[in-house]
Queue: 3 jobs
Job 1
Amino acid sequence: MDHHHHEQGSKDIESMEGAWRSIERNESSFYENEKESESAREPLLRKRTLNTTSQIAIVGANVCPIESLDYEIAENDLFKQDWRSRKKVQIFQYIVLKWTLALLIGLATGFVGFFNNLAVENIAGFKLLLTSTLMLEHRYITAFLTYGGINVVLAAASAALCAYVAPAAAGSGIPEVKAYLNGVDAYSILAPSTLFVKIFGSIGGVSAGFVLGKEGPMVHTGACIANLLGQGGSRKYHLTWTWLRYFKNDRDRRDLITCGSAAGVAAAFRAPVGGVLFALEEAASWWRSALLWRTFFTTAVVAVVLRSLIQYCRGGNCGLFGKGGLIMFDVSSSISTYSTADLIAIVFLGIFGGVFGAIFNYLVDRILRTYSFINDKGAPSKILLTITISILTSCCSYGLPWLASCTPCPADLHEQCPTIGRSGNFKNFQCPPGHYNDLASLFLNTNDDAIRNLFSGGTDNEFCISTLFIFFIAVYCLGLVTYGIAIPSGLFIPVILSGATYGRIIGTLLGPVSDLDPGLFAVLGAAAFLGGTMRMTVSVCVILLELTNDLLMLPLVMLVLLISKTVADSFNKGVYDQIVKMKGLPFMEAHAEPYMRNLVAGDVVSAPLISFSGVEKVGDIVLALRLTGHNGFPVIDEPPFSDAPELVGLVLRSHLLVLLKGKRFTKERARTGAGEVFQRFGAFDFAKAGLGKGLKLEDLNILQEEMDMFVDLHPITNRSPYTVVETMSLAKAAVLFRELGLRHLCVVPKTPGRPPIVGILTRHDFMPEHILGLFPHLHSHK
Amino acid sequence: MDHHHHEQGSKDIESMEGAWRSIERNESSFYENEKESESAREPLLRKRTLNTTSQIAIVGANVCPIESLDYEIAENDLFKQDWRSRKKVQIFQYIVLKWTLALLIGLATGFVGFFNNLAVENIAGFKLLLTSTLMLEHRYITAFLTYGGINVVLAAASAALCAYVAPAAAGSGIPEVKAYLNGVDAYSILAPSTLFVKIFGSIGGVSAGFVLGKEGPMVHTGACIANLLGQGGSRKYHLTWTWLRYFKNDRDRRDLITCGSAAGVAAAFRAPVGGVLFALEEAASWWRSALLWRTFFTTAVVAVVLRSLIQYCRGGNCGLFGKGGLIMFDVSSSISTYSTADLIAIVFLGIFGGVFGAIFNYLVDRILRTYSFINDKGAPSKILLTITISILTSCCSYGLPWLASCTPCPADLHEQCPTIGRSGNFKNFQCPPGHYNDLASLFLNTNDDAIRNLFSGGTDNEFCISTLFIFFIAVYCLGLVTYGIAIPSGLFIPVILSGATYGRIIGTLLGPVSDLDPGLFAVLGAAAFLGGTMRMTVSVCVILLELTNDLLMLPLVMLVLLISKTVADSFNKGVYDQIVKMKGLPFMEAHAEPYMRNLVAGDVVSAPLISFSGVEKVGDIVLALRLTGHNGFPVIDEPPFSDAPELVGLVLRSHLLVLLKGKRFTKERARTGAGEVFQRFGAFDFAKAGLGKGLKLEDLNILQEEMDMFVDLHPITNRSPYTVVETMSLAKAAVLFRELGLRHLCVVPKTPGRPPIVGILTRHDFMPEHILGLFPHLHSHK
């Protein structure tokens, strides 16, 4: 083992430990210098850990270690051996399994999505039915206490699940899935416990009447299901286990989780094409045509499952699950030809939608930072915060309708007025018979039903303008304060809800001068808000089309989305990108930052480099593994084995641990060759386990006399890692790193005669915080 | 200049020319050995040119040179200088221009698409009106002669345009656009003359009643428009020229052409979302989120333009352009809940659709190979072939309806029967009043109207089963023989037409046992055929949804597409991939072939390598440029300038030509530095011109005394080309090459002490024909 700045001979452990101590000293002083440059827009983690290269992240209000994923194929001898011996039947097994898994992911996500809706419809329906029965009996206080009490109990239960069982399940989950698909694996974000809490926490949260959605959690749920199925459930099922070994690598896992997140969107919105596009536009960082097809297959399965289950429920077998279940808004208002004045109105709708969206993103960021201090204090304060917000929400949704006056029911109606059952456009509330309270129709309903009411066409005067104003302000503010509490909470529904109200306000105001339906304006308003916060275009457009089942409004939706996204982009980033950054997840952007052109790869490599000889002393390996957290080490052959120092390749920590566990050591420094290793190990012994599941250094039990023995690293060394020359611009190196999905990028010297490797670039070396920390003067070039 | 196997000293031109002669000898003997391995599935070019590495391609029946595109940023001194001096205002200009170009592409493609439809509707409408008027007067022979005569004249005119003006405009154009977006530029495929012929040839071809579509040509038209606008039209417009210089590189051109091809699909089908997905799934090889948005903007503009123009035409200002213009089939048949029996029928529909699609692809391939011998003989034989097919088509469409018996008009109809005007479901043909000929309704109509008739719902007994059988066989065969003649011809319409007939046959047969409408079966049949031939899934699905405006059939369409694609994939490749391969376009697949794992990069590099010194003699450069067709040369610094031979980087042919044209030579071998070059050149002097537009070697006028002078190559050398070690597996090198969109990939030696570069990999070195030519034993591993 060898720090390459040392000379060849001096390899004693003492000097190495000394070197390490000095590095640690340097680092701590480095971080202390960093302290002064804190600001409100920085990742939350910097304040907590003083670690600028973000080896840990905040996942669901907790700090946890993260790992980079590696999509490079490590071409070592074992891999080559495995490749040559791979039989036709194995390739067939792989293809069959790939499609079976896609099918299973679709089935499971479809069922979970349906179960989620069924539970919400029944719990929330029961709650609302009970409240309205009490209201009819004029027992208003009891009604409020019942309503608020059920909400608080549901909220507290969800928050407790989240806080004690799986903190990673809090929040939307889309930022975490997005980061995973970019190559960042944070501990437990896709664990079975997270899946469990995500499903039941989401049911509780939505039933508790919060202004939040089940769409984001469904995406996370889909990803968790995909991860779980890819692991084969548990080690107990030996039959599938042998087949599933093909999926024990980051590349196949990534594909499965892409399918899972698309399935999640498809299940949440009943939008199979929208799901594919969402995965493509927002979630995935890498994409290829073959994956498009597999994702499409998964979402098609979801659509079929949902359709069959809804068909089954039409028979009245599902309790209170009526037409309300699974949002699907048949707007189908015939669009009359729109005038120029309408177009101008729509342009303004888009512009202000963008502004509101940007403000929303800014405020979400600030509120999340504030909440993080509360959530830091532990599980009880998380639950307390959730209960506070729940009480606030209950007060709003029960209290504000008293401000609205009663409206007499319109004469020519197909539906009951006032509404008797659970859902419907005309809630009675405090009004005399034959009248309805339009604000209660929005507040005392599930969010899905409220959106359906807002989108409904041919109901121009159902909501008066003051009602819409009150509802807009309440929903916009409640949506802001709700995201960030410790329950699974999606952002789609709050954004659609406030956007639809905003659109309907505009539509109602324009009523006298426009031929367009206020329901159509509500759809356009929702599009404007979605464009302004999430900055998605094609997928939002297709999701809205599939929700409203009206293709003719496509050009208008497109126009609004383009305008609102453009406007909002001039203020800040999309809400998911913002959350990814705030959580400290080291996300690699698709494009290199401009200042990276002025740096070269050699400028940012982390020194000092720890490298191994081709045949290395066991003790040195163990020491290096113990002292560093590095996951890849260069292997260098030196004069007895080669003419001059020569880079053999890169060896991974996980492979080293497996090799050491095998204990095929030799007394002498001699090459044993690959044959020896093949006798001991099969190719899949080195397959990559999921995060936290692989061997750990503590699992090794190396005897003292073995520490002085040698082991040949050649067979497990990746002989051809991707390399760049130290003088390559950092921007070009970043493109290489990102496009190929690397975990380690070796930097080699430009001129001959120097040690054969300068350093290793990892994901953290490309992070703006790291680079700007090293070169503060670049801030001005930014 | 230096062949690296030579020793340092011997650099005389004689020895180099000797070397070259020996290479040429080797190559010719190599190609002669290749001759024996010909087969029917090989690229056509191999037979013609004996060039296995396909430096030329067949574009529209003519052989033409091709060039690889280069998406790597060549980081030489000039680029760095330019980057540092780039001002905020220039970045702003670039962004404004980017969006303006997207807008212009959308507008232009929308207008052209509308013009295309308008012309076809009027020409074909006039022809059909004239024919039916003559038929009503019982002048059957005159009617046939008029009908056939007009067809032949239109066909001959289109073929003449194609054969004499722009041979590249023949065929669909989608394979060429796909290859361009993969990085292959064949001469004149995006030229203004091609655009002209594509537009007018397509109008002629569609009006002539061929079984072909305008959809493929529209994609090519969109790409041509994008290319033309990106070039700024001509050098005359100096105002835009200075701004457009930012787009003089392959990367920005690629983005524009992606937008253009999406706009083409959007204009052809009025399917903006489908256009984006088509560009993503089928056309583009590289993709990123930002491009998704720009493409979406372009297609939105197309949709708005088309909508406005159709609105204008509703006023009756467009001649015969009625509801027939621009396919848009409002099926909107209410889907009754389907039974298990229906599902089984649909599964079989998908399976046989896949089989028919695979057979179609196989036969298209064989027929194209046969036609290529005819088309080879020159323009007159191309025109003759077209006229023959035209007469055959006329005979079928006028002759076959005589086989059908007359059907009495159904009683309860909203539309006229028999049809009086141009389009309509009930053509009178030879029948007495009050009757219609159902086969004539399909044949004597535009293809768009025939599809609309087949898709129409609630018309269960309009077509009898024998009619559908005759039409299916005729259309399937005519579609096959039509593709490949020298006119712009798309494959979408023939495939949809025969698929819809096939589906309607199944629907009619199942009529007694199924509740589903035969019109719905026609849509599903079209989906099955599209899946079976083109192998697209998501985009076809969305295009069909946007065409039929019925979202509820989505799960069924998905199911059919998945089945038919899976079935067809087990037989052969998609039709566009097949044509790309046959034309000899060196397309880089997204995944590496399995046998590439058994080879290393060093195995396939083309020897011998020609390299330059950092300061090189002008005469040697000129000679190397003259003797080789290489586009990149490594630059190596040698002992007077460095300690040991050291790779400086890569210099491009186009940059060398500009440098030589500048004539800043020195008498002595000395480094002049970058300053000298900056005085003479601006950054954009080295910007890449379009294919065939850059400087040529013949444009240089180097005097004899200048030949012995020296020029410093350092300022124009790309200092950090991407490199791989010679021992890296070819599969990994291919992934790097493809993902980064490279043109040259430098292979460096593994061990120190050897010349600093082993060779350069180009696109042709990764082609299966080249590799399997070098290593024939790999055929067995395939």
Note: Residues 1-39, 47-53 of chain B have pLDDT under 50 and may be disordered.
Job 2
Amino acid sequence: MMPGIKIACTYCLFLLLGFAVKADDGHALWLRKRPANPVNVVSAKQSPILEIARKELQDGWLGSAGATFVLTIKKDRSIRGDGYRFDGSGVQANTELGILYGVYEVLRRQQTGLPVMPTVSNPSYDRRILNHWDNLNGSVERGYAGLSIFWRDEKDAPAVTEKDRSLWLEYARANASLGVNGTVINNVNASPRVLTRPYLEKVKAVADIMRRYGIRTYLSVNFSSPAQLGGLKNSDPLVPEVAQWWKDKTKEIYALIPDFGGFLVKANSEGQPGPQDFGRTHADGANMLADVLKPYGGIVMWRAFVYAPNDNDRAGQAYTEFVPLDGQFRDNVIIQVKNGPIDFQPREPFSALFGAMKKTSVMPELQITQEYLGHSNHLAFLAPMWEECLQSDTYQQGAGSTVARCSDGSIYPQRYTAIAGVANTGLDTNWCGHTFAQANWYAFGRLAWNNQLGSEKIAEEWLQLTFGPEDAAGPAPAKEEWQQQFFLPVKQMMLESREAVVNYMMPLGLHHIFSVFEHYGPGPWYGPKGVRPDWTPPYYHQADTNGIGFNRTATGSNTLSQYKEPLHTQLANPATCPEELLLWFHHLPWDYRVKSGRSLWDELCYSYQKGLLQVRGFQQTWDKVEPYADAARFRKVQSKLRRQCLDAQIWKDACLLYFQQFSRRPIPFDIERPVYDLDYLMKLNPLTLQVFERNARQHH
Amino acid sequence: MMPGIKIACTYCLFLLLGFAVKADDGHALWLRKRPANPVNVVSAKQSPILEIARKELQDGWLGSAGATFVLTIKKDRSIRGDGYRFDGSGVQANTELGILYGVYEVLRRQQTGLPVMPTVSNPSYDRRILNHWDNLNGSVERGYAGLSIFWRDEKDAPAVTEKDRSLWLEYARANASLGVNGTVINNVNASPRVLTRPYLEKVKAVADIMRRYGIRTYLSVNFSSPAQLGGLKNSDPLVPEVAQWWKDKTKEIYALIPDFGGFLVKANSEGQPGPQDFGRTHADGANMLADVLKPYGGIVMWRAFVYAPNDNDRAGQAYTEFVPLDGQFRDNVIIQVKNGPIDFQPREPFSALFGAMKKTSVMPELQITQEYLGHSNHLAFLAPMWEECLQSDTYQQGAGSTVARCSDGSIYPQRYTAIAGVANTGLDTNWCGHTFAQANWYAFGRLAWNNQLGSEKIAEEWLQLTFGPEDAAGPAPAKEEWQQQFFLPVKQMMLESREAVVNYMMPLGLHHIFSVFEHYGPGPWYGPKGVRPDWTPPYYHQADTNGIGFNRTATGSNTLSQYKEPLHTQLANPATCPEELLLWFHHLPWDYRVKSGRSLWDELCYSYQKGLLQVRGFQQTWDKVEPYADAARFRKVQSKLRRQCLDAQIWKDACLLYFQQFSRRPIPFDIERPVYDLDYLMKLNPLTLQVFERNARQHH
């Protein structure tokens, strides 16, 4: 067992107050050390990874004391990739990594009280990858848990310390315990410098650690690196010198890192360079890199997140851009597609690209870090959002063509399958800022392994691994009491939490009405002259005195036509369009009657109010579990829920008072009145909300 | 009619929005101009004051058109002082001022729909005085409505403009309409400079205006003026040169202002100089000034607001200091006693000095400005608080010896009777900052005239004078509709408002747990070393792990013994002590059972929650009356109620989380959870709450 467990008891303080209180700093994540029984681990083969598997078993075995557990590497056609077969007496796999994953699964089942019955488990995706938007100066774009665990501001002489290696090892173990087998360790807005020798040497140091847990290291690359680093005239992918430069660089990388995973590319997107700068297509650019990587088994993950200011609907552009290129990509190119057509909003429909690219490998990109869901201040369990996307039916090959099945090789013959999650880790002691944000890292890993897992099951697992009766001050309660008093209400809170965020931020299909820079507070009014319209909220909500919502039907942008029948017809009719996506696809009058019988305006009001009340409910739930939780995590979560409630109030007031200027209708009188003036909220730079940033971060 | 009516219509803006909206800037107070009928005013005598009376009748007559109304000055033994007799056909009085007051009463009755039946009305107090804590540099101590209307920063050359005179005339008229007949125009923390010639000439200019409406001008004086201004060695009242200096100065004043009212003195109080500096008593000091003023008919108002840091209970000190001096004061000295024993808290018991000084004139000092009740941000109608004090029974001369009767000459033979109200006026266009703060100025004036008036009647009058069906956008609703939809709910809100403040700030007899400097937000924790304990909240709340409250019984400070039987016995027993004063007199355990059956801790929690819910209710009430109110005042009040709700939340969270450290009990789970962390609120300098100060003040 790695040195990841820290139980810091502040007895001196609490004893003075008359309490005996336990404190957990959260660093152990879902891998908390619990008293284990002795186990006899048998393995015909020895290797470093098998040794890890043995040690995990010895440190965490909750089966019968003195049992024998056999690790068997043997070809088995029912096992794919690093999948495994297990029962109470052992794990069998095709690979060493499969053994390790199987061991983690057995231990997880023991700890969560699930039966360990004969089972085969195969991964949904071959490549299960975290994307770190970590900059070389140590900052993390959209990171809310401290600075980068990989980089710090060191000019061009990045160093590696023992402390770094130790932390990376903990990180690798946490990922391996979920089956994550890849990590992109620098920002998609990539600095060319990462490809210079000093940085590549640091990448090698990271990769050497990652490899111990079966994790491949990848890099984001800047498409203009040949010009910027190599002194070439340009970075046109069809210029032989450019391809040669990439060939040489790739050779250099693989010499350092033989199992290097490949490149992630954000090209011609939000100001990043790309092949279109030279009149080439995305396929031209991606294929050039794919050809260079091919000899080494590397892949290119080419992001589809592209949009231009001159288009009338950002939501349709990735589809317009990429579908015509279907069939033109090399088989080691995977198009990396965000779950929704815009940008990680609290709710979006699935991206129409899923299932529409039939001859091209496509991988979903999910966002674990809560860029648009309250950063690390709000409790928002994201598994329901991802489950909603993965289980959405594209109908591209008939009913049942879910996003999951369209991306995991079930429907289309992909050479590679993969899934990416934008990480939420940083140097904060508890890795993620918010204790419950750890659950999103966990959920991504579990869904990447099994894209059919339900949110409830994931929440149950995580809660049982992360908390327990032993956290209570004083004697541990019976498991049954803990289940009733802690586990069930907290699970309920988790499962409801993402919908609460939708309700108090942007219900009924509203989207991207955030304060534009930090994507935290509300900013539906923001739209100064000279700013690209598609970077301003009014572009998305389209509120006027007639109504609200983005008309994406045939009478509007017609982006709706990108969805396949019968979905298209269902969405195109407001009466059959799911109400939670109503204003995503339709501009509707304020007095439009929704299913509740209320007017659209009233429904909007009740939705925001509901969100606020949900957060108040979470506060109640959490305060009630105080006797069952350790003091340190209890208080941090309590404090963050308070902030969330304040924020929900701000969101509700800002949006209702702003939209009321258009609706010209009263807020129904059984709804709590706003407590802020609109002009105050409009002047309130969301960054000044830092006045509320009360809890100093603990850095590792 | 004076030029006090300003209807500023911002049609241009609102018409664009499709509304026709009326806007009232509030400057006209309760004297709004309404369409009047012609009236024939008959008066045997002519004088400037009678001419004002005639003009008011002609501008405001709502009786039958063409009626005759007779003004008659005639001695009548049933009429006292400036009292009057009136019916529908005329007013009779002993004095011209009595005529004017009678005219205002007739017009008030016409406007509020009351019958004008034959009635005699005599004032409860001879001198009905506003105290302005206005500094010579133009600032106003505890003023929340802009700078002083009397002073501005002009070094030693104060000037008088026509704009000043015009404003002072409006001010005088507003006061006269209520029967207020005196004004102290400088701060009780007095600068000696006010007695220099340039300032006295400005005082004369003010007095010349005030006199037109029968208002006497008074000055606060600094007891060390002889030393500071006259160059004397000291200001010992028994030194003949000191008395001579005051004699000369008084002569100079009366030469300028023949009807000058007298001096208000804050001596040996909170660092102000006084006779005790020279080993003399308050009586020595007051009597010296009284002798000097006597020839001119002037009076000395000597404040009893004294307390020393070395005493164990500030609440008892005024009594201890002054009762032994009873009988030693000249008959033109009036001891000015704050309503409660501490300092204008949202709720206090009456000061034990009332009724206890049997051979000395005593006058109540009320605070109109909301120093401790949310400044000009919170809606708090103070008439119920003052009524509660005035109707409190002291039992000093048997049952029925109310504070009112102990101070108005009903029980004790006072040479002079008087009442003072610390004013809430400033240069803000609406005079008082908050529209509803005008009601407190109004209520003080009405209670000063008739200390038996009920709060509800005062609220009804003020509302009908200050608002009306004509404020509605579009056609005016019927009077009946306006009564149901506006008048009744808003009246209810006003009558509940002070109790709401008590609930969310300091229920159950808690007091002085404010943030100490600005007396606005909560600060129950404040108590740094080196600060006098009686200037820190823990001195007052005495919270510890055993319980909370100030033990003023015989086992504590025994200040309770200053109250007369049977009150003393009633208060001394927690079971019979009114619950709203429980913690004022008792330190009780957290699990003490209150009448609701709840523990003291739970009751505290529910009280704070109730206060917050009351403010939310006020918001509901006010938002519902929008169609009946003019847009300008509606929006300002709406905005201030929002701020009040935010503040109530802060108060509730701060006090419950702070006291919870001692009670060690959970906040009952059906109560809304705190949304702030205690450490955040403790760090929050209340002045930084200015971030919420959204509405730029309009200066006159």
Note: The CA atoms of residues 390 and 404 of chain A lie 5 Å apart.
Job 3
Amino acid sequence: MSFSPLVRQLMDALRVLPGVGQKTAQRMALHLLERNRPGGIQLAQTLLQAMERVGYCQRCQTLSEEPTCAQCRNAQRDDSLLCIVQSPMDVFAIEQTGYQGRYFVLHGHLSPLDGIGPEDIGLPQLLTRAQEPGVREVILATNPTVEGEATAHYIAQQLSTLPLVLSRIAHGVPLGGELELVDGGTLAHALAGRRPLISPAN
Amino acid sequence: MSFSPLVRQLMDALRVLPGVGQKTAQRMALHLLERNRPGGIQLAQTLLQAMERVGYCQRCQTLSEEPTCAQCRNAQRDDSLLCIVQSPMDVFAIEQTGYQGRYFVLHGHLSPLDGIGPEDIGLPQLLTRAQEPGVREVILATNPTVEGEATAHYIAQQLSTLPLVLSRIAHGVPLGGELELVDGGTLAHALAGRRPLISPAN
Ligand SMILES: [Zn+2]
Ligand SMILES: [Zn+2]
């Protein structure tokens, strides 16, 4: 009962943030209440707007408050390359390497034991997207984890009948790690050293 | 340009939280957007309410959305003890020791070089509060830092003409530290071992 009900509610609400335990939530709440109310109000308003208005790009499935995202709308990018990643954070990581192609964001990986199947991560949309004119190579940049590898393998099978080069980013990225934690240089190297999985028969 | 404008605004807004840098803000924003929108909306609404409605208790100056806080309204507590602390977090810390008296929260310490004088931390209100019927002992529990000691010393001088026992929490608390980081056992010991600074002449 040391804090008033509304202050306690704020401390509890802050714990939805990843990595924020009781002590950190207390410090955050008191910092905003005692030292930065305008910043706290700004955060509340932006958070509410973002939660209500940010959806998914119709074309690549990344987070976007517009129907299509800036990368998809940018006519300067290379339509022949389509890079498949597991999350919007991975788009951010790969953009740092200077990659200029297109993206498709899966939002997760296949996980049959958890009931997460191809439809749940948007694979039907990917199949359609990969058949659009201009696409020549699909780069599988899922995480170098067991689940990411299995997802890449499944996608490769699904796309194997299409006249596309399928490639996987090179294992310059450390096995068992998460793509977004890899430094830009390593990631650029892995991207440059991608190797074909399946080439068109012709 | 990897994230949409509203997603970037959210990442920027999250950096008002203490200890949250760019990478952590990105993870927090994507976590809420991808995995917990109800939690994000709840946080936004609670944050806005708290920033707009939480004020200060008229009696002890701690954070409270009511005119007087629960500790001040609780008729069971011991009116004879008045414990002076620097922040609402210190009230939380001292409550863990089982202390049953009253509090007065300064919101900082005297800092003449920064232009923070007695009025800025509520010392006139403290002088009034300390003269209310029933108060017999004022416990100075400011931080065991140079500034906290100087503030305690100044308050002791101001209250020295009143018929009160003035005490300082014992230096079981480590010098140079912050009160809220001290474990409950040490703090309970320090509170029990408090020593008189000035006793009434009678
Ligand atoms: Zn897009
Ligand atoms: Zn109060």
Note: The domain at 5-53 of chain A is CATH 1.10.8.420 (Helicase, Ruva Protein; domain 3).
